[in-house]
Amino acid sequence: MSGLSHVGDDGRARMVDVSDKDPTARTATAEGRLICLPATLAAVQAGKAPKGSVIGTAELAGTMAAKRTADLVPLCHPLPLTKVAVTVEPDATLPGFRVSAEVRTVGATGVEMEALTAVSVACLTLFDMLKAIDRTMEIGAVRVTSKQGGRSGSWSRE
Percent of the chain scored above 70 by pLDDT? Predict the structure, then answer.
């Protein structure tokens, strides 16, 4: 098990020690989607969702979630985030919403988990705010789309 960074020699889960790593600028982006009925999308676009400002609330929830990632994912390091930007875009071709997040920090470890958490919670918030009018919704395709910084350098999903 020595090849797994979050498993100690005794087989127990542990937080990785990053104290010897130099702080560098780090960025990660992630995306996901919520698929819904066309009528649900139309209700949001017309401002007629029963719980109010769906898109703005989901974007705010995603931002708040990124800042709480270390509280939610047991082995994540608490990081001083310097940027969290969550965007929810209606997409009639799904139909539904495309959700994206960009997270930045200067630190000794990356922010992929924060970006994934932001997208996930934004999607969950959309679901929560729309479940009264659409029980068929589906959350999916949550994934990291890019990362920059650190020893492993840059990576992008193409």
Answer: 97
Question: Which of 20, 91, 128, 134 does the annotation list as catalytic?
Answer: 128
Domains and CATH numbers, the chain: 36-148 (3.30.70.640)
pLDDT band at 1 (very low <50, low <70, confident <90, very high): very low
Alpha-carbon separation of residue 110 from 105, 121, 122, 134, 148 (angstroms): 8, 19, 20, 36, 8
Q: What is the pLDDT of residues 13-24, one digit of tens each?
A: 888 889 988 899
The CA–CA distances, whole Å, from 73 to 70, 81, 150 equal: 5, 16, 21
Q: For 75-133, give the DSSP string.
A: TPPP--EEEEEEEEEEETTTTEEEEEEEEEEEESS--HHHHHHHHHHHHHHHHHHHTTT
State the Rg of the chain over Cα. Answer: 18
Active-site residue, 9 included: no
The whole-angstrom separation of Cα 36 and Cα 43 is 11
Q: Is the pTM of this model over 0.85?
A: yes
The three-class DSSP label of residue 28 is strand
